[in-house]
Amino acid sequence: MITATDLEVRAGVRTLLSAPGSLLRVQPGDRVGLVGRNGAGKTTTMRILAGEGEPYAGTVTRSTSVGYLPQDPREGNLDQLAKDRVLSARGLDEILAKMEKLQVQMAEHADEAARDKAIRKYGNLEDRFSSLGGYAAESEAARICNSLGLEDRILNQPLRTLSGGQRRRVELARILFSASDGSGGKSGTTLLLDEPTNHLDADSINWLRGFLQNHDGGLIVISHDVELLDSVVNKVWFLDAVRGEADIYNMDWKKYLDARSTDEARRRRERANAEKKVSALKTQADKLGAKATKAAAAKNMLRRAERMMNELDAERVADKVARIKFPSPASCGRTPLMASGLSKSYGSLEVFTGVDLAIDKGSRVVILGLNGAGKTTLLRMLAGMEQPDTGQIEPGFGLKRGYFAQEHDTLDDKLSVWDNIRFASPDAAEQELRSLLGAFMFTGPQLEQPAGTLSGGEKTRLALAGLVSSAANVLLLDEPTNNLDPVSREQVLDALRTYEGAVVLVTHDPGAAEALNPERIIMLPDGSEDHWSEEYLELIQLA
Ligand SMILES: Nc1ncnc2c1ncn2[C@@H]1O[C@H](COP(=O)(O)OP(=O)(O)OP(=O)(O)O)[C@@H](O)[C@H]1O
Ligand SMILES: [Mg+2]
Predict the structure, then answer these.
(1) Residue 386 has pLDDT above 80, yes or no
(2) Share of residues in the chain with pLDDT > 70 (%)
(3) Ligand 1 atom 28: residue of nearest CA
(4) Any long-range contacts for 486-495 (C-beta under 8 Å, 24+ apart)?
(5) Is the CB of residue 405 less than 8 Å from the CB of residue 475?
(6) Distance 233 CA to ligand 2 centre (A)
(7) Is 51 left (phi over 0), alpha (psi -120 to 50) or beta?
(8) CA-CA distances (angstroms) from residue 220 to 97, 273, 300, 541?
(9) Whose C-alpha lies nearest to ligand 1, atom 8?
(10) If both were cysteines, with which of 98, 301, 381, 430 could 285 make a disulfide (CB 3.0 to 4.6 Å apart)?
């Protein structure tokens, strides 16, 4: 169980959440959906509940073990094998390593006493190993990994060699493994999962849903995946960025949606009433102001009206939605980007080979392929960020690329929001950049914020703003809708619909492909091409 009492969460000087009392509590059997707009404070709050961050005020108590999946993958020891990383959740990797060492010693020791000692030690370790689930646990770990789309081959690789998406799946597997004891018994672990479905294919998401439905400990999940919320959660905490409060709904997702829309209708009514009051106050004040004796009263009235107005405005600004428009592309030749004979291997593993392609001016292409087929790798090559083993990229006349990376690696975490944009387009005028950032909802003190401290959705927004400022004529987009809340996602997709330049898209989000309305697909690993048809939507979900 996790309980937060009188919790207050801040970011800089802003209060993200103030929750008096002990309403924020997760008990075994509670499956909480923690939701709210991008930047509302979901990640920050969850970190604090997990014990990885300190609240500004209040206390958090934890009476069970906690399995926490952060939104950004942690670094850690990259030389560790993926398999060992998962097993380490229950300390099994260390026991196994020690047992292996002792085996060698037992064989080597000539001295009988020393050998007996090693044998005894080995026996103790084996006991501990089996009390923790032993070899069954090892296969349990492998089963979880496979269900999340991690093949055995990958499990025996060091983390360093895995893609960002694969590493994140290893982390998820590790946490789920820590929460399951394999025998169907009660583990009681409280799971805290921040966007667990990013990087997962449809099969894995299905499996995850089942796992979470059967989880007997508590659960808090942050997700923009509506289907997951619908099938898993029985409580909803809605973080309201405007009021800095959490609304607690003890009900499932469908009922919550109804209750929310009722609440919102009520707030709209209250707002309309407040606006009426403000204008009545102003009229009154005008009338009073005409009489000298009533000037002070009139002033007070105006001040009250202004205060009410300011509160209403704050709400309006915070609820604003980015109206994003991609740039008019710089002019270019007929085929701004070509590639021939591209191939890539990691060690003995051939990812793809002999891929040819031509991106015509204004054309729209989706790259398809299963997990690990090399979609991100191909996009990075087209962006000029990674060298192919064979073949070449041939830039056409006037080519201007805009690359959007899955893990936001186009952003410099240490630089401020403002400097990131300035370096992305050094030639643009300051005023132009300011209004561009405004259109993407970055204003005031947030311009000075280091990009590394932005929320997941805010990072996505900033990276997209960087693209917009560059007048690119070929956009290379890798999962541009990950991390976006539903409203922001629609904005980005709208911008895609009207963009005039060429787009090469990698996505797990069928809605994103539909919005792009592509002409062609390129299938990895073989690089074959086909006309777009609706049937490919299914493949996108699988990938
Ligand atoms: N050091 C800081 N200074 C100022 N603001 C900060 C700082 N660190 C974080 N923030 C802000 O706190 C807010 C909450 O961030 P958080 O990551 O918790 O949001 P979130 O609800 O998880 O959003 P998302 O859905 O995009 O993941 C964001 O607006 C972020 O920019
Ligand atoms: Mg977040």
Answers:
(1) yes
(2) 95
(3) 39
(4) 486/224, 486/226, 487/37, 487/321, 488/37, 488/38, 488/321, 488/322, 488/457, 488/460, 488/461, 489/224, 491/321, 491/322, 491/323, 491/324, 492/324, 492/464, 494/324, 495/324, 495/325, 495/326, 495/464
(5) no
(6) 18
(7) left
(8) 34, 36, 47, 25
(9) 453
(10) 301
Q: Alpha-carbon distance 366 to 353, whole Å?
A: 18
444: which DSSP letter?
G
Q: Strand runs (DSSP E) across 102-203, as ranges? A: 190-194
Question: Measuring CA to CA, which residue among 388, 451, 440, 444 is closest to residue 417?
Answer: 451
Q: Ligand 1, residues 15, 37, 43: which to mutate, most atoms within 8 A of Cβ?
A: 43
Residue written as token pair 């590394």: 452
Distance CA 507, CA 365 (A): 11
Query: Pick from 341, 266, 336: which is nearest to 500 by CA?
Result: 336
Residues 227-259: tens digit of each pLDDT? 899 999 999 999 988 888 999 999 999 999 999
Tokens of 542: 């699988």
What does pLDDT average to over the chain? 87
Q: Token match 């021939």: residue? A: 340
State how far the Cα of 173 lies from the Cα of 86, in Å rounded to an integer: 6
Give the distance (Å) from ligand 1 centre to CA of residue 40: 7
Position of tokens 């914020």? 449
Q: How far apart are CA 467 and CA 359, in angstroms?
A: 18
Q: Is 42 in the pocket of ligand 1 (CB under 6 A)?
A: yes
Q: Which ligand is nearest to the CA of 193?
A: 2
Question: Over the stretch 90-147, which tens digit does the pLDDT of each residue have?
Answer: 888 888 889 888 888 888 877 888 888 888 889 999 988 888 777 888 889 999 999 9
> Is the confidence at residue 289, as pLDDT, over 80?
no
Atom of ligand 1 nearest to the CA of 71: 27
Decide whether any atom of ligand 1 lies within 6 Å of the 38 Cβ. Answer: yes
Q: d(Cα 529, Cα 65) in Å, to the nearest integer?
A: 50
Q: Which of these, 160, 201, 208, 157, lies nearest to 180 by C-alpha position?
A: 208
Contact partners, residue 111, CB within 8 Å, separation at least 6: none
CATH of 337-542, one of 1.20.1070.10, 3.30.460.10, 3.10.129.10, 3.40.50.300: 3.40.50.300
**Is residue 47 within 6 Å of ligand 1 at its C-beta?**
no
Residue with CA closest to ligand 1 atom 4: 12
Strands of the 31-35 sheet, one edge to the other: 66-69, 190-194, 219-222, 31-35, 235-240, 245-249
Nearest-angstrom CA–CA distance, 388 and 355: 11
Q: How far is Cα 492 from Cα 509, in angstroms, rounded to an integer?
A: 13
Atom 11 (ligand 1): residue with closest C-alpha? 11
Q: Are 190 and 29 in contact (CB under 8 A)?
A: no
Residue located via tokens 């401290």: 453
**Ligand 1 atom 31, closest CA:** 454
55 lines ligand 1 (CB under 6 A): no
